[in-house]
Every structure is written in structure tokens, then in C-alpha cells.
Amino acid sequence: MLKLENITKSFEGTTILNNLNLEVKDNAILSVVGPSGAGKTTLLRCIAGLEKADSGKFILNGEPLDPADESAKERIVGVVFQDFNLFPHLTVLQNVSLAPEMVLKQDKKTSEAAAKDLLAQLELSSQANQYPFELSGGQKQRVAIARALAMQPKILCYDEPTSALDPSLRDAVADLILDLKKTGITQIVVTHDPEFAKKIADQLLEVKPINK
Amino acid sequence: MHYILEILPSLLSGTVMTLKVFFWTLVCSLPLGVLVSLGRSSRFKPLSWLVSFYIWVMRGTPLLLQLIFVFYGLPNMPFFHIVFERYDAALFAFILNYTAYFAEIFRGGFGAISKGQFEGAKVLGLNYWQTIRKIVVPQVLKIVLPSIGNEVINLVKDSSLVYVIGLGDLLRAGNIASSRDVTLVPLLLVGVIYLLLTLVCTWVLRILEKHFSYYR
After folding, report:
1. Fewer CB within 10 Å, N or C, chain B?
2. Domain containing B32: what range?
3. Kindly report the CA angle at B138 between B94 and A90, in degrees rounded to 5?
4. CB A31 within 8 A of CB A198
């Protein structure tokens, strides 16, 4: 279980998150909804360690967790970015296998075999040797998911997973996220689309802009 | 034709010197340029200021003056004397100068890499140097290649400045032959050799650009 206690974050005097408390059960899908500027993405960035919370605690299964700790041996939190942030100069396969090689020190054979498995799961096998610019939006997103999963995170965060896709792909993403639940991973999905949120969510968190 | 064959050996030995200065300057200045540009954008302010000052001096004064200063000036400094051989002095000045230019080019290249690339690497657990080496530099190279190419071609011709400290490069060899035999033929030949050298550079750069066009 992931627990957030009294998380506060402000930028230049504007408080975005104010004493936020939250519990996400293992293997659950949490949808975070709310209007623009309410702090959905800030919350996600704090959980991912891209921003440091001003105060408050993260607790994972009873152990304190510092998402911003770069020296941590394992990656607890994976992220699928809104515009994916794939590495354009690497093939799909290299995008997925790079971090296990560099960070987990796996040898090339192991990391590539694992990456190929992941790509097969996500129906990307025939794209393995293509470059990101050759892919469709949906394919890019699945590569981003595969890349995050390759580090075997316990929690996977999505920032607006439907915003860069055709409306017709919305249901496909929802199915994919629901499907990943079977692997035992905890997922946190930030979205401004309440319908999408309800479709996938076990838990729903609504954030509202803080009025000064 | 006979005359050309007669002076060609001396011109070619001058060309060897030109190529040596060219080659070592490139080999040292390119990686140094990457490091210096990282220092320039360092969050540690004194380092960033120091690097900015260095770049300002190197780009703000003529390379010719820098050459003279390194060879004639450094040995006569009041407290410490640094004496260089002619060739070493030339390389030292060229590397210092070109590193500054390359650093500014790389700075532009680094600036063109989106924040998302750094964040993508960070959440995967890559550390700073892994990110620079595996994610940033390969992309920066593609971006800066045309500007680097410009400097590379400039360097071919700038190398002729070493004549000022008495180094026997291509231009000097042509000059000597020209004034000795009272004819412009050697200088024309020198021009042709420079053209050939830059032609080869242009060709290599084009191949490199093609190599980097595998992604967008």
C-alpha cells in the first residue's frame, strides 16, 4: 500500500497541494481527476520524484519512501509521460532495454530478451527495430509503457494517457490499463476525462484548485 | 609542370604540418568543448562564471594574438615562465580557442534537448553522466553537426596563422617558394591544396549528416 501523508507543495508562493492525504491499495488503479491547474500533474510529479514535496511523507508498505532519491537501487515508480518522452535516437527495443542495462546492470542478452517479451505483450514485436518517429501515437504510448515496465516498478503513473490519442483509442488504453492490473502493479492515472477515469478506477481522487 | 613538381614536396610537407594542427585541434577541442559547455550551464555559479569569462576572452580576441601571446608572452610572465616549443604553442592556442567556439555550439545543442528527455531518463533511474552519454550527447551531435562543420572548415584555413610563430605549414611553404622564385604559381597551388582539403572535409561532414538522418 502506498500512503501519502500531509503532502504539501507550492511554487513561488502558490500552494498547489495542501496537506494531501491519500492511500492507494496494492494492485489498485487510482484515477486522479480535476480541472487544469488543480495539481493533478504536480501530485504525479511528486510521486515520481520529479518534484520534491515541500513537506509530508510517502510510505510504501510501512517503509518510508523518498521518490526523489536518485541513489535508490530499484525504481519503485515508473512514469508514462503525456507526450511519452521516448528517446528519438534509439530503436523501440533500445528504448526499452537501455535502463535495465545502465541502471540494473543487466547484460545485453538478458535486457533484450526481457524487452522483447514486454514488446510482445504489448503487441509491438514488429516495431522492435523501428524508431519512435515511425510509430503511431498509440504505439508510442505502448512503447512508453513497456519502457517503464522494464524497470519492474511497483507503481506505474500515467500523465493524461488519453490526451495525445485519437478518441477511438481511448477504450484501447483503458483495456490496456485494466489488463496490466493482472500483473499486480499499482497504477495511478491522472486524467481530465471523468468518463475514462470512472471506467478504469478502483479509487477516485478529485483534486480542486486551492482558493487563496 | 616541371616547376610544380619541383616545389610540390615542400608544399606537401607544409600540408602535413597543417593537417597535424588541424587533426589534434579537432580531436582535443571537440570533447573539451562538450565538457566546457556543461561547465557553462553548471548550477555551481563560480564555475559557470569562470567558463563564461574564458569563452569571452577566447572569442573576443584574435586567434593570431593568442598565438603570439602563448609563444612569446607566456615565457616572459613575471612570476611563472611557461616555455612551449613552437608546435606545442600552436596546438595549445588552437585547442584553447576552438574549445571555446565548440563549447558555445554545444551549449546551443544542449539547450535544444527538451526537458522531457532528461525527465524520461531520470524516472528510469539513469544518473547524470549516463543521461548525458546515452541520451543527450547522441542527439546533440545531430543538432550541432552543421555548425561544427562550419568551424571545421574554418579550422583548415585558420591553421595558416601558425606562420606567425615560425611554424612551417602549407601557406608558409608556398610563401617561401613564391618569394624565392618570384612567381605566384606556388600560392595558386597552395590555394588548390586548401580547396582539396576543405572538399574532403565537406564530403566527410555530408556522410556524417547522412548517418544521423536515421531518426527525426
Report:
1. N
2. 2-214
3. 170
4. yes
CB atoms near residue B23 (< 10 Å): 12
The pLDDT of residue A211 is above 70: no
As a whole number of angstroms, the distance between CA A99 and CA A79 comes to: 13
CATH of the domain at A71: 3.40.50.300
Identity at B143, one-letter amino acid code:
I
Q: What is the pLDDT of residue A55?
A: 86
Within a domain: A95 = yes
Q: Count how many domains chain A has.
A: 1
Question: With 80 as the cut, is the pLDDT of residue A69 above it?
Answer: no
In a domain, A211, yes or no: no
At B193, which CATH number?
1.10.3720.10
Q: Express each pLDDT in B125-151 by its tens digit.
A: 998 899 999 999 999 999 999 999 999
**Mutation for testing the A interface, residue in B117, B119, B122, B124 having most A CBs under 10 Å:** B124
Give the tens place of pLDDT for each residue, A148-201.
999 999 999 999 998 878 888 888 899 999 999 888 899 999 998 888 998 899
- Neighbouring residues of B84: CB distance < 8 A, sequence distance ≥ 6: B70, B71, B74, B75, B92
Helix (H, G, I), strand (E, B) or coil at A51: coil
Whether residue A75 is contained in a domain is answered as yes
| Tens-digit pLDDT profile for residues B206-216 | 999 999 888 87
The C-alpha of A197 sits at a distance from chain B's nearest C-alpha, in angstroms, of: 24
- Give chain B's domain count: 1
Whether the Cβ atoms of residue B170 and residue B17 lie closer than 8 Å to each other: yes
Neighbours of A162 (CB within 10 A): 22
- Measured between CA atoms, the residue of chain B closest to residue A73 is B125
Question: What would the grid cell of residue B208 be?
Answer: 556524417
Domain for residue A212, yes or no? Answer: no
Tell me if chain B has a CB within 8 Å of the CB of A79. yes
